[in-house]
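pinned: reference chain
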Amino acid sequence: MALSDFQTALGRLVRAPDGRDPFRSLCLDERERSCLERLSQSAGFRFTVDVQRSWCVGRTMNAGTLTLSILSDGVRRPLLEAWTNCGGGTSSFFAAEADALFDFIAARLHDPSHELTVCRFEQATLRASEKAAVFIPPKPIEPDAPGRALRRGPYAGMVLFHGDPGVILDALATGKPLPPVSHEVSPILLSPGLDRLWRPASAIEVGLWNRLSAPSPFPALLREGFPRDAIESMLRAGALEFVDNGLE
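pinned: its structure tokens
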């Protein structure tokens, strides 16, 4: 057995099972496979697996503290198990793994719900805070230059609160029960250039954000009726950015 195959087999055995054959695609004969299978059932190896899994769960809880804390135990435990089973909690790149964790959780939450809102709010806050320390507002440039387009800022987000954001966030901070989900939606803009990283978003800003799910030329946005000052305000906050992509 090649050393690389042995290392790969051990790594797959240590990580939580995902239902697949841990020896797939490896060049192992029957004796080697049998030896590894016996090893995986030994007390010492199972202890190693338990320690590694506990470490992964701890890293995951630290990455999504707020979101995971408001989920019921019956929802949180299966999510943690599913996340660690697919290898979550092992990466040393905290920001990237946290972002993936929030996407993983969000895909499994009811929409609309306060839990989903908090998940996306915590995710967007982490993105914005990651950039805030080094964010520099763009210098004034000629936005109408040929090929100049706008897109959403990669460290920004737009989160919809189903109710009063202040009441919901206060309930989270004080441990009070969350209010009922409201039909009234309050959009919040999160961006690295904002003083608190977030503020209420105007209807125009929500429209701009939705419009820029794909890059668009600046002149096209003006022709569609989006005010220049609103666009420039979002640019200064880092919620939007320019991109040269050859768009006309």
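why pinned: The two ends are 57 Å apart (CA to CA). The longest helix spans residues 43-63.
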